[in-house]
Amino acid sequence: MSKPIVAIVGRPNVGKSTLFNKLAGRRISIVEDTPGVTRDRIYAEVEWLNKKFTLVDTGGIEPESEDVILSQMRRQAEIAIETADVIVFMVDGKEGITPADYEVANMLRKTQKPVLVVVNKIDNLSLEDNKYEFYNLGIGDVISISAAQGLGIGDMLDEIVSFFNDFEGVAEDEGEIKVAIIGKPNAGKSSLLNRLVGEERAIVSDIPGTTRDSIDSFVEIGGDKFLFIDTAGIRKKSKVKEEVERYSVLRAIASIERADVCAVVIDATEGVTEQDEKIAGLAHEAGKGVVIVVNKWDLIEKETNTMNEYSERIRKDLSFISYAPIVFISAKTGQRVSRMIELIKYVADQHAMRIRTGALNEVISEAVLMKQPPIEKGKALKIYYATQASTKPPTFVLFVNYTDIVHFSYERYLENQIRQHFGLEGTPIRFIYREKKDR
């Protein structure tokens, strides 16, 4: 089940980014008093009362744009309506209602999605009555807060999550393998989806950014069921000019969250770019299985070791996902697409693997005997016991004497030992440490 998306909208300088940072628990958006300083869509995962949702801080006015403020706000509101499940409409309690507020309210009024009017900058009780003016907007409940001081935030979150009771996320059959096809624009994701589905399901063109939305396709191949999610291409932030593309990235993030395995599509004619690294990093950080798919291989002139040399470059550039298998394909001709399917299925199994506790502890004990943990802060690390806490990705809990002396290099060593014995190809591994003193 996918998580609800909550978008914070409003005209510039009402405190959207301040609220976003407060809810996200860390300073993510740049906060200034200059209108339009939030130029890129920012997102974060938020949890309140055991309910998780994706929070979006929407960009306002583009500083270099000469367009009318209201037209910019109109476009932003349109995209928020289209993308979000719940809309937080933020207004300035000190300044009062402005024409721009009415403009946005008129658009939000047309949607069937829940809207919460949040009156910000109510920094003390003397300003509390200011919120009543905003009932004139006529688009939903009104609540007052001070994002800067943290006043009223809990009540506001209570209101937000109350809307989730009616939220119907995208539910999938647990029996199928969910695959997100991700990559930068024009890498051939839509062509690949069309090849897999066997029909012109996605629009294919040479214009980057054609796919604005995520497209789901159920496919049965050799008795195995797959749900392929074709996501909009993820661009560099500096190249994201249209608000709609910012939300395309959000949809891609949501698609990664839904997936078991991410097929990271790389354009063979360009090689691994900085943006490819970031996209692969999103899948890795989300704990998803990963298959690196090098597309347009038919366009590459081959020599004896071309594929091996290309693989080495990928391993160097994407060293943080060294666990991911690589397959060279051509979505256009169908070359090795069947091999890609085999790898996706294999990685999905590895991603969901559960290891017996006894076998796990044998490997950990043997690893410690072969290589003792380094002494940190004058203390020697002892590993008493290990168990697997969960799958997707495989997550292991290690009970140790001191959690603060676990060195990254030794964790990598243990990870390599576990992979050597159990495989776990294509999936990240997570470690959790619990302190347990000698008795």
Helix-strand category: alpha/beta
Q: What would you give as the CATH superfamily of the largest domain?
A: P-loop containing nucleotide triphosphate hydrolases
The tally of strands reads 17
Helix content: 25-40%
List low-confidence stretches: 27-41, 60-65
Distance N to C terminus: 44 Å
The ordered string of helix (H) and strand (E) elements is EHEEHEHEEHEHEEHEHEHEHHEEEEHE
Q: Might you state the CATH topology name of the largest domain?
A: Rossmann fold
Strand content: 15-25%
CATH architecture of the largest domain: 3-Layer(aba) Sandwich
- Overall pLDDT score: 81
Order of strands in the sheet with the most strands? 2-3-1-4-5-6
CATH classification, class level of the largest domain: Alpha Beta
Backbone shape: globular
Let me know the largest β-sheet.
Answer: 6 strands, mixed
Tell me the count of domains. 3
Rg = 25 Å
Q: Determine the number of helices (DSSP H or I, runs of at least 4 residues).
A: 11
What characteristics describe this protein?
6-stranded mixed beta sheet, 439 residues, 11 helices, 3 domains, alpha/beta, GTP-bd, GMP Synthetase, Chain A, domain 3, Rossmann fold, 22% strand, ribosome biogenesis, 31% helix
Walk me through what this model shows:
- This protein has helices spanning 16-24, 69-83, 99-108, 153-162, 189-197, 243-258, 274-285, 306-317, 337-351, 357-370, 408-422, and strands at residues 5-9, 42-48, 51-57, 86-92, 115-120, 141-144, 177-182, 215-221, 224-230, 261-267, 289-295, 326-328, 375-376, 379-380, 383-390, 395-400, 430-435.
- It is α/β, with parallel strands linked by helices.
- It has three domains: 5-166, P-loop containing nucleotide triphosphate hydrolases (Rossmann fold, 3-Layer(aba) Sandwich), CATH 3.40.50.300; 177-351, Rossmann fold (3-Layer(aba) Sandwich), CATH 3.40.50; 357-435, 2-Layer Sandwich (GMP Synthetase, Chain A, domain 3).
- The strands form four sheets. A six-stranded mixed beta sheet has the order 2-3-1-4-5-6, sandwiched between helices. A six-stranded mixed beta sheet has the order 8-9-7-10-11-12, with helices on both faces. The protein has a three-stranded mixed beta sheet with strand order 15-16-17, with helices on one face.
- The longest helix is centred in the middle third of the chain and has 16 residues, at 243-258.
- The radius of gyration is 25 Å and the shape is globular.
- It starts with a strand and ends with a strand.
- Mean pLDDT is 81; it is low at 27-41 and 60-65.
